[in-house]
Amino acid sequence: MVRQLNDINLLIISQPPIFHLNPTSAMSAAIEAGIFRPPRPKKSVLPAITRGSKKRKTEHKIEEISFDDTSRADYLTGFHKRKVARAKLAQAQAIKMARDEKIQMRKQLREERKKELEEHVEAVNRLLKDVEQPQGKWSDDEDETWNGIEEEAPVVEPVDHEEEYVDEDRYTVVTVEEVDVSKEGLSKVAEQDGSDNDEEVPKLVETEEKGKKVWPKKPRKQKFRYETKTERKASRGKQKAGNKAKADARRGNG
Questions:
Q1: pTM
Q2: What pLDDT does 1 receive?
Q3: Domain count within the chain
Q4: Of 117, 145, 179, at which residue does a domain stop?
Q5: Which domain holds residue 165?
Q6: What is the pLDDT averaged over residues 164-170?
Q7: Residue 103 in domain
Q8: Which of 20, 74, 111, 227 could form a disulfide bond with 231, CB atoms 3.0-4.6 angstroms apart?
Q9: Residue 139 maps to a domain
Q10: In DSSP terms, which residues pair with 180 in a beta bridge?
Q11: Residue 2 — pLDDT band, cuts 50, 70, 90?
Q12: What's the angle, vertex CA 181, arms to CA 175 and CA 183, rounded to 5?
């Protein structure tokens, strides 16, 4: 029994002591012993905040965000209104653009017409300059005088003759006679002395028509005239009386 106890004591003394160590304390002990390198310090991804940047950040800090309910409602319910406003604005811009184009086109046309007029005036001046006789080159015959433009002798047409005109569907004979015009009318020169004032003017043109188609005369359109107040009143009275008589007749038949 004593021997067994001695063996147990020897076994306990011979075995090394067992310690339960914390992993952190073990890592610290290993670092202190020089087995592992110390860890590198962690670098921040964000830039370093300096004194000035910190000040600016605090100045532009938004303390509160508030929404206007009326503006929010107008925005949410005003899509159609804004669409109509955009359409009106586009239409006004198109009208203005068309007006500007018209003004520009008219201006261009005026400039072109002005240029054409200037060119025409220059051409006319050149022609006049070419036509005009230069000074110092007058005719040597100074004694010759200009008597003006000579009038041509009038051509006397024959009188008292007949002319014939042939058309597609008619044959016309025109007799030309010399007549005298007075207050009483037309009269022949040969019969001027013996003719009476009440005598009818002789027919100067005789026409023989063959196969002429006679067109019916159109009825003459009556001239429109406004009724007077009395006439309108009378016509209304007649109309009312006629309507009343018709109504009485319908009642009697019913």
A1: 0.26
A2: 47
A3: 2
A4: 117
A5: 161-192+202-209
A6: 62
A7: yes
A8: 227
A9: no
A10: 187
A11: very low
A12: 140
